Amino acid sequence: MASHPYRDRDAMRRCVEAIARRVSQPWTLMEVCGGQTHAILRHGLDRLLAPAGIALIHGPGCPVCVTPTARIDQAIALARTPGVILCSFGDMLRVPGSGEDLSTARARGARVQVVYSPLDAVRLAQRQPQDQVVFFAVGFETTAPATALAVLQAQALGLANFSLLVAHVRVPPAVAALLATPNHRIQALLAAGHVCAVMGLAEYAPLVRRFRLPVVATGFEPVDILQGVLRAVDQLEGGQARLENAYARAVTDGGKGNAQRLLETVFEPATRPWRGLGEIPNGALSLRPAWQAFDAEARFPLDQMPESSHPDCQAAAVLTGRLTPTECPAFGRRCRPEHPLGAPMVSAEGACAAYFHYRAPMEEG
Amino acid sequence: MCLAIPGRLLSRSDEEPLFRTGRVDFGGVVKAVSLACVPEAEVGDTVLVHAGLAITRLDPEAARKLDGWLAGEA
Fold first, then answer.
1. Is A220–B55 a contact, with Cβ atoms under 8 angstroms apart?
2. Is it the case that residue A362 has pLDDT exceeding 60?
3. Which of B21, B24, B55, B73 to mutate to test the interface with A (most CBs of A within 10 A)?
4. Helices then strands, each counted (H, E), chain A
5. What is the ipTM of this complex?
């Protein structure tokens, strides 16, 4: 097998031709995963599909981008607490809270440690029993199993100095909220394949029934994404609305997998605000009562801070697919990765960052 | 952060399942990864790794089907 069989230009061209042969009218598809948004822009899939009348719009697929400023403010407050080390994924560091970001706080003396995995935070807590280690648990259902495993490991090791600031969110409730919005443009949904690899397809079945639209579990390489588009277009052209799996090598249709069981052992659905989208019923995950001892909110006095985003940031419209990043007046001018107004320009998965990196701002402006 | 990356399992540790790790090769970069969710994974399998945890094992049969489509067999 070639090193990247699913990035092969010829294979991509054949997929696009197959899609173009099926299309008789324009269609608008939404993906809800920053990894897919970046792959689409990086490989120019939007431009390959535009002549066939296929528009790809981007949903709230960036967990960093939907973490409320109030939660980031709490993370900063924890990092400033004597005796506390806040562990975070690297892409959280430059996301603005209501005032500063974690990176600035660290430069001013707050203890912030970048980790690749929540399991690294457990090892840090093991090595440094004199410190309280708090992991800033950001991410979708893809990341939550690793966080859940960290909790189980910390318990097995008897660690009293490990806890979580939980900001995990769930994709299907957010999609349901978007689909319930009047005048949305979404005609089919490419469901993020790695969320489906953990959770299976079952959560999408009620959405397919309620909103009567095709939902296709889709992978991340360009050929995978085009295969998802092809299946969705096939359904749209045939007047169908089914749940389909275009990422069969990672997503199995039947039964709960170990990662889902792990997630559900430790977490349960909860209602918390999403940045830019507000409260989404059951759109978040919280620790189950049995694991409350690992909740940083129970362990440390944390203020409930007001939500406060930059007034010129249009992140809410970008996150809901109503605005393409390049349509924002601040894009590439006052808002750039080195001085962002909002999270989607900072995060490696943010839609604004994807357009900035793969579409020269000058070209659009 | 949210992106899972496929890699090939090179070896497995013999710790208890909760702490079991494997060395996984991501195109030349080798990292230790938790195998807590993929107890069935064998050396040589491709696993999908997210935030230090292998969340699933990729199905080679399904991959061959896609390869077949790309080769014009379907």
1. no
2. no
3. B55
4. 16, 13
5. 0.94
Measured between CA atoms, the residue of chain A closest to residue B40 is: A258
B4 contacts B50 by C-beta, under 8 angstroms: yes
pLDDT at A19 over 90: yes
CA distance A61 to chain B (A): 9
> How high is the pLDDT of residue A1?
43
> Closest partner residue to B53 among A89, A140, A146, by Cβ?
A146
Cβ-based contacts of B59 with chain A (< 8 Å): 248-250, 252
Residue B59: which of B1, B6, B3, B4 has the closest Cα?
Answer: B6
**Domains, chain A:** 9-63+172-245 (3.40.50.11750), 64-168+255-299 (3.40.50.11740), 315-358 (no CATH)
Written in H, E and C, the secondary structure of A265-304 is HHEEEECCEECCCEECCCCEEEECHHHHHHEHHHHCCCCC
Rounded Cα gap, residues A273 and A283, in angstroms: 8
Decide: A137 and A118 in contact? Cβ < 8 Å. yes
Distance separating alpha carbons of residues A178 and A207, to the nearest angstrom: 11
Cβ A34–B2 below 8 Å, yes or no?
yes
Block residue for tokens 């998802």: A228
**Nearest by Cα to A143 from B31, B58, B50:** B50
Q: Considering Cα of A142, then A143, then A147, then A153, what sign does the dihedral take?
A: positive
Interchain contact, B50 vs A3, CB within 8 Å:
no
Closest by Cβ to B51, choosing from A61, A117, A258 = A117
